[in-house]
Amino acid sequence: MDHNTFAVQDGSTAKIAIVKARFNQEITQGLLRGALEVLEASGVREDRIKTVEVPGSFEIIHAANMLAKENEYDAIICLGCIVRGSTKHDEYLAQAVYGAMKDIMLKHSLPVITAVLTVNDQQQAIDRSGVGPMNRGAEAAHVALEMINLPL
User: Fold this and answer.
1) I want to staple 119 with a disulfide (CB 3.0 to 4.6 A). Which of 88, 104, 124, 142 is the partner?
2) What's the Rg (C-alpha) of the chain?
3) What string of H, E and C letters represents the secondary structure of 27-42?
4) Where are the domains of the chain?
5) What is the pTM of this model?
6) Interval 35-60: pLDDT, tens
7) What distance in Å separates the CA atoms of residue 122 and residue 71, rounded to the nearest whole number?
């Protein structure tokens, strides 16, 4: 998916929370950079974006839930990276993170957008975090803005 897939959204009134994992910092920093670029280009003011950093992808769950409880944000964007290892740890972690984000979204009727990468190796993570033409963080920001402006 590229940026042209998304319609331009007006973010001038949006208030966004971003939760970014520190683990795999090079990757998550690239995701954050992409998300912030899209939000800025869409008119979201810097003072209406709250960024929270947590140790790893699993901890995103707690921070996203606490932010949702504040009832101040139009959407929450979650940024992390889970790389496949020699055990099934990555699978269990990804299932827990994605399941919890779904639960938070439904419980709070709030878009919780994930750019928690689940990749086979470091190169896939690099490819999806903005070094090449793909940045899943930027895509997550586009999705968040579209969901905020969803005409229901």
Assistant:
1) 124
2) 14
3) HHHHHHHHHHHHHHHC
4) 15-148
5) 0.93
6) 999 999 999 999 999 999 999 999 99
7) 36
